[in-house]
Amino acid sequence: MEQYFVDITLILDSTVRLAVPLILACLAGLYSERAGIVDIGLEGKLLAGAFAAAATSAVTGSAWLGLLAGIGAALMFSGIHGLASINFKGNQTISGVALNFLAAGLTTFLGQSWFKRGGYTPQLSGDQRFNPITLPFAEQLREVPILGQIYYELISGHNIITYVAFIAVPVTAWVLFRTRFGLRLRAVGENPKAIDTAGISVTRLRYQALIITAVLVGIGGAYLSIAQSAGFNNNMSAGRGYIALAALIFAKWRPGPALLVCLMFGFLDAVQFRIQGQVFPIIGEVPVQAIQALPYILTVILLAGFIGRAVAPKASGIPYTKER
Amino acid sequence: MTALPRWADVVLLPLLNVVLAFIVGGLIVLAVGQNPLQAVGIMLYGAFGYGSGFGYTLYYTTDFIFAGLAVSLAYHAGLFNIGPEGQAYVGGLGVILIGLALNGTHWAIVFPLMIICGGAFGALWAFVPGYLQAKRGSHVVITTILFNFIAASMMGFLISRVLKPEGVNSDESAPLEAITRVPQLRTFIELFKNSPVNLTFFLAIAALVFIYWLIWRTKFGYAVRALGKNPVAANYAGISNQKMIMIVMAMSGVLAAMVAVNNVGGVQGRLILNFVNGAGFVGIAVAFMGRGHPVGVGLSALLFGILYQGGQELAFQMPGITREMIVTIQALVILFTGAMGDMLRAPLARLLVRSDAPTGAK
Amino acid sequence: MPPTLSKARTQLKALARDYGLEVDPDAIIENLSVGQQQRVEILKALYRGAETLILDEPTGVLTPDEADHLFRILGKLRDEGKTIILITHKLREIMAITDEVSVMRQGAMVKTLTTKDTSPGALAELMVGRRVLLRVEKGPASPGKVLLDVENLVVTDDFKVPRVKGVSFQVRAGEIVGIAGVAGNGQSELLESIAGMRDQLLGTIRLNGEVLSLEGDDGAARARAAGLAHVPEDRLRMGLVTTFSEWENSILGYQHSYGTGPGLDIAMARATAEEYIKKFDIRPPNLDLKTANFSGGNQQKIVLAREMERNPDVLIVGQPTRGVDIGAIEFIHNQIIKMRDAGKAILLVSVELDEIRSLADRILVIFDGHIVGEADPATADETELGLLMTGSHASSGKETN
Questions:
Q1: What is the per-residue pLDDT for B217?
Q2: Cα Dmax for chain B
Q3: Which CATH architecture has domain C146-389?
């Protein structure tokens, strides 16, 4: 019994860790898609953010500068996306796909040129990373059964970005549904013409959304390389941007459900690590590949059946052209 | 809408976009302290300078023609198929299964069967997202991405656990006998010695012609284009959008699977882990650069063939530039020809109008 | 935020009371009727303290009654010293409520006049640049056998909400049956269902006595094969592929009859397009031009030529003259009459009551998915029709089903 409790706590703890980049990327996507801009490029921004954060942190020795660089890289990518999809009225999906390849190519190419380690950045340690924070009284409460253990294992002991990610969810809900900016943001995703008629710049609003997107996904990227891991390696985002996008669709573009779906995907990921190589009664050993593919298969099944009609913001994916 | 003369729209604008992509790529190379012009020189030599280099260029071109056509055909129907990578991978299973089943049989019999069997596997892998799009409204962009991941896991399992013979260390299937493999051109043409270009190359050329005919000269192609440009109008015209989406996706998968015929049937003679190695993704760049037109696709595929083969040469001669630079170029090409394709339209139109005016006055 | 919101709500309520623009401030916009949505738009402008109000075709979706209400409000605003610019193609509205009128033709202001010193005829002439007949000339109809027979039709929209709720009617050879109603009362779904683009939940459609099976998403092909032609309500969304060239659009829906095998007989298609251009005076006469680059009137002619020239038994037409200049309207109306006189059965759906009254031989009024009345255009009274269209005339012949 005790053992199961510990097991479950550990799985949930790694669920939280694995969900953080998904939550950040998913919220990031939420802002841009709510503003009517499809963002397939989350994956690329995540990767670019991770690389920039690790590279900067390795060179400067400061995790905070690394975080800033991660955000900066994501902002640059968002800028390109905005240029293509807002100013030049290009196809947003294509632009996103291009950004994903750009990130994959550039991070490895620059990483190799700068650090000569086959695309890896140097190992980070100490202040080059965001280290776990022990919340007040965690040590004292550790001995309290169940609640104390949950507090110590699950809630305390994460790095700052984790807390930022979880706080970002209610903040996003508030911004989206309780502020003037949020109202406009949702309106521009549904009917940009109405926003234009009201004398508000569609271009400006959409860029603002893209900036928030970049900040969040940049933090998510930094989390990957300088909080969760100790350095960047090739293609370390490993499809998380796509999973975040799928989570966004499941959540029907709402922050609360987005958190839940991201936690669910994080949980799947955590379970996958746990049962790898274990032999089960009757089924025997579950092949690694089957476990790896599970989140994707599940996503396809969910996309095909259970969510039925996920109605995206009406104007999403359509560049806004003022009538001339 | 800014109107451009047809020649500018069809040739000049895409060309400028490609040039722009390469200029930006060159600047990146320059930024890391390498000489981009020298790099281009090495690449051109690597791609054309000697027989086997040229052969490799054509071999890569073959892959990219198929992948590019796969993306183009779907795109004409308004479907963005990001899955040729996975479709080619699964297609490889069909190719190796028929090859191994008939191992030792003459290639003249096996080659067409590889096309059919590999094509069927690739078609299936693309049909499912097509079906989900048509019947369940699940967006094909997302599902094809997911199917790439699923294909990678599934094929990884099949290759390492099922197809791998006893006593082999690396993850690959049993080999095909020489007589069963698609013959390489070096057996007929001395120039191509030591290069893998094979009969599939001619299949690619035939596919270019066929797709041109299909898209612009048939009722089916008319329906495909109507669907892609205005699905409501297609429905109004009595075209079954659902049926078309499924058929087009399946055909797209067949085209992608020909990458496997080229690689598994013509070069490796066995199914190797991750043999597609990004060729399917290059198809996206090729399709946008070629504007979905078979002539454009052919030329773009050749360009990427040059980049890939030249890139290998480059990696030897200039160690500062890795192969990933090609992925970067590929991204820039997609960006400038696909997403920002109209960026230069307005300035170009102004320029052409201005230069037109004096001649008109004379 | 909440205090600001409640302040806004109070202000809006006061404005609504002052101007007779009552709407529920907490309602979701898409649940309001189009007339009420219109009020919200005006309220919004007033709330923001607008001094100048520009209205672009504000009555297109309103019943005559709602339109009158709107004009009373506009009158009140004018009297308070606000400037109102009304853009409309309805001469009646110009004459009724404006003080000054400017006529625009082909992007240029042709003339500015004081309204009371001009007449509808004079304005129409300025708009087209030549004399036009404002009335459609047509002889009496001589209806023959029933060609289109719709029985107890129930159709749902994309969200599975029933929009057509048990409609029955017949259209005979040589007659034009007009369906009048405020936009959004099931006309679009009715048209699309008969044309084979939308599955029916219940009911039967017979064409020339034969039951049309329209299941599946290629029903439109079967409807066409059975002798039905369809001029859709929205040519840009449905009737044309605007990025296709003129000739390609001239065969849309009929592509299968061009060429015998899988190949498309392009020469034949181009010859057809050439012929349509001549017959319907489509300008510019360039069959390689993208359809997007034609004017609204010429785009509509491309659609009409395609649907009329294939000699169908039944022609269903939605909003034939929406967004079309007066000159082309005259032409289009005459073509429709010509079809009728050639013995075709024509079903006409339009939100323009004037158009229905001048073209149709019989008028059916649709409200909330039901046919709520039938009228003879010669004797029908506008107020009477208006009441039917808003469903406020329960006594008049409810539909039998």
A1: 96
A2: 82
A3: 3-Layer(aba) Sandwich (3.40)
